[in-house]
Write a structure and sequence with these properties.
This protein is an alpha+beta fold. Helices cover 19% and strands 30% of the residues. The protein binds (2S,3S,4S,5R)-3,4,5-trihydroxy-6-oxo-oxane-2-carboxylic acid (GCB).
């Protein structure tokens, strides 16, 4: 396949970026068929002309914005539209409309003409709109978004229909989820309009290595829209110094003498996240691609960054907050990074879907390591392993790598979270998805999926480079019995080790804790229990830290919303911080550990 680039919209001497964020018109298609919008062709007119509209912020999830329970829990099509103008001087430029993400399935029209569709909730998509745009008057963009999760979507889900009309209204159905997070929906990230010249830079791929004190930078530029006449490539340091300059080469390998490496901030507190910029000029189209020079490798007992052992002091996260749901919010991003650093964390996993590019930028710049996870969460049913799922899963991995391939923060791809890897169907499935992932990533980062399987029953971890295991001893099993945690976790780690000579990260362990709830001696759901529970895990981690355990990631960074169910009290409360990003007692406990461990290594 010929891959299309999905470079982040950055402005430059040759490119203009304009945002379409703001208040849009909005309406859910709440008709009994949930399809009236298509019968009435809502995209052909302003939404206001076909019925009443709500005001909906973009970016944001729509679920928690209004006071309407039906909209919070809505399943089906919702519609957004707004007016926009295109500057007349854009006439000779390519005009691109780009969505950072929309959950789950999206169709986009401009001035009543369909311009693109996208399948999947957490990755960007874009299209040129020159053919339909009006440069001398208003334009209208209409977006239909459908949040329904089916056995073939990622994450998968299903619809459950009730036909007993004595007990349920006619046509009654509910969305069944296989994931432990609220299925927030809407236009979750920025909407940008941007320009490029007709001959333009479509994609840039940078792969780095280290040779002695030098950085080796391998780059490849893909252009489109005509033969490029002149090419100029330079590498500029963070301080603005041009360190290398090359002419007329769309592809090449260059050396940065006395390179400054990209380090996680705990490994190199004085110089974390050092980034260079590859400045590309193709026939006057200029794009500045940030990158860092670092290597990642896995041995049978270690995870190495720049040849040095790295121990992940991490958190599992969500894009989740009051009111905005999964919507992009710069204040929240800044607070999250500040709180990760307060904890002393040096890594996180994008559990359980790709996070916003603006979050990934901060990971690069601040030197926080990322396990970059696909939306393959909750693949617990045999029907989630069919050929349609497989083809889509491979497309999603391609899109994710296309987006994040140049990021030094990303050190591992996770293709899934807790799939039913005990099913025989999972073997061929993961062999294929993992091989595809390795194939697409030119930097050849390690690939994994996160497992909760029992090592004797698992058929798919044989394909991973590094084992990532989620464990809840003393929570879902032996509830209340923290005294069994050390024994059970030790037996488990040694069990995995007996079948795979691979390093292990515990990617989740955690206990539900209502902030401010106390009971002594400790009792489930209290802050005391969370502290005792976590401490028991830490004792076992300390036993294996010097052997083959290369990381620990608490579940989770903050409390987060889930669907309504009896196990969850207004969401999942395993956060070491509250949903408002304030520490529970366990936050302080974790901070003490992470700070002392990062000072001792
Ligand atoms: C898990 C899942 C995560 C859940 C967590 C829990 O294993 O990976 O999505 O939120 O357990 O709290 O049950």
């Amino acid at each position: 396949v010929l891959l299309k680039g999905i470079l982040y919209p950055l402005d430059s001497e040759s490119r203009t970026v304009k945002t379409l964020d703001g208040m849009w018109n909005f309406r859910a298609d709440a008709s009994s068929s949930r399809n009236q919008s298509f019968v009435d062709q809502w995209w052909t007119k302003p939404l206001e002309a076909t019925g009443p509209v709500l005001t909906m912020p973009v970016p944001s999830s729509y679920n928690d914005i209004t006071t309407d329970k039906n909209l919070r829990d809505f399943v089906g099509w919702v519609w957004y539209d707004r007016e926009f103008f295109v500057p007349a001087n854009w006439i000779n430029q390519r005009i691109i409309l780009r969505f950072g993400s929309a959950h789950y399935y999206a169709i986009v029209w401009v001035n009543g003409q369909q311009v693109m569709t996208h399948d999947g909730g957490h990755l960007p998509f874009e299209g040129a709109i020159n053919a339909v745009v009006n440069l001398s008057g208003p334009n209208r963009v209409t977006v239909a978004v459908n949040n329904t999760l089916l056995p073939t979507t990622l994450p998968p889900g299903s619809l459950s229909f009730q036909h007993d009309v004595k007990r349920y209204p006619v046509g009654y159905f509910t969305q069944q989820l296989q994931i432990d997070f609220f299925n927030y929906a809407g236009i979750h990230r920025h909407v940008h309009l941007y320009t490029t010249p007709q001959t333009y830079i479509d994609d840039i791929t940078i792969v780095t290595s280290i040779s002695g004190g030098d950085g080796i930078v391998n780059y490849e530029i893909i252009t489109a829209g005509g033969a490029p006449e002149a090419v100029q490539v330079s590498i500029v340091s963070k301080e603005g110094q041009t360190v290398v300059q090359l002419y007329n080469q769309l592809q090449g390998t260059v050396t940065i003498p006395n390179v400054r490496l990209w380090w996680p901030y705990t490994s190199m507190p004085s110089d974390p996240g050092y980034m260079y910029t590859l400045v590309v000029n193709v026939s006057g189209d200029i794009y500045r691609q940030p990158f860092g020079v670092r290597t990642v490798a896995v041995t049978d007992t270690q995870l190495l960054i720049n040849g040095r052992p790295f121990y992940c002091l991490g958190v599992g996260k969500h894009e989740d907050a009051d009111i905005r749901g999964r919507g992009l919010d710069y204040a929240l991003i800044a607070r999250d990074f500040n709180m990760m650093k307060w904890l002393g964390a040096n890594c996180f996993r994008t559990s359980h879907y790709p996070y916003a590019e603006e979050i990934m930028d901060q990971a690069d710049l601040q030197g926080i390591v990322v396990i970059d996870e696909s939306p393959g969460a909750g693949m617990s049913q045999v029907q989630n392993f069919g050929p349609i799922s497989l083809a889509h899963h491979k497309d999603v991995m391609t899109e994710l790598i296309q987006r994040d391939k140049n990021r030094p923060s990303v050190i591992i791809w996770s293709v899934a979270n807790e799939p039913a890897s005990n099913l025989s169907e999972a073997e061929a499935y993961f062999r294929d998805v993992i091989a595809h992932t390795r194939d697409v990533d030119k930097a050849k980062r390690p690939v994994t999926f996160v497992t909760d399987a029992d090592y004797p029953n698992d058929v798919a971890t044989q394909f991973v480079d590094i084992l990532c295991v989620n464990r809840y001893y003393g929570w879902y099993t032996d509830t209340g019995h923290t005294e069994v945690i050390q024994l059970q976790l030790s037996a488990d780690l040694e069990g995995w080790r007996s079948v795979h000579q691979k390093p292990i990260i515990i990617t989740e362990y955690g206990a539900g804790t209502v902030s401010g709830l106390h009971e002594y001696p400790e009792f489930v759901f209290t802050e005391e229990y969370q502290n005792t529970f976590i401490s028991e895990y830490h004792k076992t981690f300390d036993k294996y830290r010097t052997q083959f355990l290369v990381g620990e990631m608490v579940w989770s960074f903050t409390d987060f919303m889930t669907q309504q169910e009896v196990r969850r009290v207004v969401g999942n409360k395993k956060g070491v911080l509250t949903r408002q990003r304030q520490p529970k007692a366990a936050g302080h406990l974790l901070r003490a550990r992470y700070l002392s461990l990062s000072n001792s290594t």
